[in-house]
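Researcher: Hi, I'm a grad student and pretty new to this. My advisor asked me to get structures for two proteins we've been looking at. I'm not sure of the right format, so I'll just paste the first sequence and hope you can take it from there.
Model: That works fine. Here's the first sequence with its structure tokens right after it:
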Amino acid sequence: MEKQENKYVKRTQKEYSMSFKMSVVREYEEGKVSLGELSRKYGIQGSHTIRQWINKFGTFDWQNLSLQPMSKSKDQELLELREKVKVLERKNARLEKELEEKDIKAGFFDLMIDIAEEEYGVQIRKKCSPERSKIS
């Protein structure tokens, strides 16, 4: 008989980004999902973690059980703005790279058309008069 070993898996503490925490809190505050559903959806080990994020970063006053939205603290607004800036900077860098690649492709295609026109002696590009281009 083989001896079965009980393998104990050690729980690890995960580090979550501020933007992730804020999005989870925002999703909960919209009222569409429960704490348990959020913990299953994102693989967060306990609903207590999410509850702490709600108390810390939420816009409702859960301490006084008031449904009046609390104003965000300056630190919280600053953190949110910094996260938005980071996201926009990454998006801007990606778009600039895509634009550069498109410019390179356009230059390549222009060069190919020039070579084809020279090699075959056929005019590929349409040359329309300035009066026609104004009309269209």
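Researcher: Oh nice, that was easy. Here's the second one.
Model: And its structure:
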Amino acid sequence: MSELLNRDECGKNGYLTLLGHRYSCRKFGATQLTDEELDVILEAARKSPSACNNQPIRLCVVQSEEGLAKVDECTKCRYGAPTVIIAAYDHDASAHPSSTYGPETCDFGDIDTSIALTNMENAAAGLGLGTCWVGAFDPSAVRERFNVPESCKLVELLMVGHALAAPGPRHAERKAVEEFTTRESF
């Protein structure tokens, strides 16, 4: 069994500081990620938890000029990112909630993929890279252009690269914890 990191090894507020600096970047430089940077981001996805440890996520990394041109045919929201990660999950491999025990609205694969996307986004931020989740895409076009198997459900596109734009003016605006949290009952 691996040892848990203690508070001093992680930095008292290191993770919260990272989250405070991360933002949705909407302007990227043309410099491609290094293989090492991409490896760290993909490893963050690999280490992400999933329901029943089924690990249903499926990722397609797009970096070629031809591939990025195909992404541009599917969304107007690439923002010049040199790397796009198409995130999906295999519905046949994901855990499914029952009608009496589980989330009301979704397949666990959707949740599992969202966790992996969040971990990839935070790993990229830790490397000083920018990211942006994009849900505004044509799923039929993505399926066709990237040969997405029928069993896979598309979740999001993750744009990754070197940020050229600063966070927007509302980036630091956050509700107080008390505005969205109750105790013991809603």
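Researcher: Is there anything I should tell my advisor about the second?
Model: You could mention this: Strands lie at 57-62, 83-90, 130-134, 152-161.
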